[in-house]
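INFO batch 0412 | record 1 of 1 | parsing
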Amino acid sequence: MTDDTQPTPEEFADLESLLQYFIEENQEFLSWIGTTVEHIGKGTMTLSVPYDEKLSNKRPSPSGDGRADLHGGIAATLIDTAGGLALRTAMDNPFDARIATINLNVNYLRPAVGDLVATANVIRVGGSVGVSEIMVESTTPDGETREVATGQGAFRIFRPE
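INFO prediction complete | emitting tokens
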């Protein structure tokens, strides 16, 4: 592979490393927030973003010792990204289609004050539309993992003609 060519899917050991490469090389925002591909399976995938104060909403804490909450847009980004990418894992030819979000629903359950982990599960992949459900979890300062957001995405699938 030279500097002016893109690698082919066959050059990667697995789908996780291919998607991680894609995020790092082509998705500036996802790369900037530290998005990592944790797991990929048929119809499911897990992405994570580490806690970083630059992604938080700083606000006064009555005790002054609380960790700032992560901005809700980071959880929404994970819901959108994991939901769309998970659809590819349920397709016969995951690289032959383009996918665009057409509807995104996010329900925030509690503040996130630790690393975020989003797991997406495909509900349906149709000819032109796919739907995924996504759960986002975060680790609390005492080490407990809690659900912080849920979401559902509908995605337009543009298949080759």
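INFO post-check: The beta strands are 36-41, 44-49, 56-57, 69-70, 98-108, 116-125, 129-139, 145-158.
INFO record closed
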